[in-house]
């Protein structure tokens, strides 16, 4: 199963358009998770306590773990998120809080180092920006670090289209260039 984590917000999302382009090349058995429709909220005192209690007893059949279980079971993961405020929409961070469950997506070894429990062999991140992405560490870089250090997914790549909101930008040809890059990678 390919898990498509859709953190796009606008109905005419260019980021989603690029993600769809990738999916039509590699997609079979795709499970799309539209974050806006998932009622995902930040963890609070109550939900955190409840989750910690359930997790420490090793019982993962509560629906609170469904998102984490899907993420851990996926064979490939595609995350599509527009570049917002130098990173991505807060909804994606809330999703990450939901899936980062010790014992499901990752665990710690005796030395305190995290290791991954996820099945996926690849994570593809897709983003578009209005201007230039001048500090990748905060958006894609963060996701890449989670993939490497928490989830155990080594093969991580990013497809992006930048400068889409500049005055006079030829949006279609910028997107087309990214699609050509996708073509080269998924021939
Ligand atoms: C709330 C918000 C924050 C944004 N922050 C940035 C930013 O920090 N840097 C940037 O270059 N563009 C920024 N943009 C522009 C978007 O990255 C750009 O329009 C992107 O293509 C939107 O993706 P979409 O078409 O998939 O919705 C922002 C747009 C919004 C709505």
3D structure, described in words:
- Helix content is 37%, strand content 19%.
- It contains 6 helices and 7 strands.
- The longest helix is centred in the last third of the chain and has 15 residues, at 171-185.
- Bound molecules: flavin mononucleotide.
- The site of flavin mononucleotide has 17 residues, from helix 1.
Provide a compact summary of the structure:
The chain is of the alpha/beta class and 187 residues long.
Helical residue percent? 25-40%
Number of strands: 7
Q: What is the CATH fold-level name? A: Rossmann fold
Instruction: Provide the CATH superfamily.
Output: Flavodoxin domain
How many H/I helices? 6
Going by CATH, the architecture would be 3-Layer(aba) Sandwich
Keywords:
single chain, 187 residues, alpha/beta, Rossmann fold, five-stranded parallel beta sheet, two-stranded antiparallel sheet, 19% strand, binds flavin mononucleotide
List the helices and strands and how they pair.
Blueprint: E1 2-6, H1 14-26, E2 30-34, H2 45-56, H3 66-73, E3 76-80, H4 90-99, E4 106-108, E5 114-116, E6 122-128, H5 140-151, E7 155-161, H6 171-185
Helix pairs in contact: 1-6
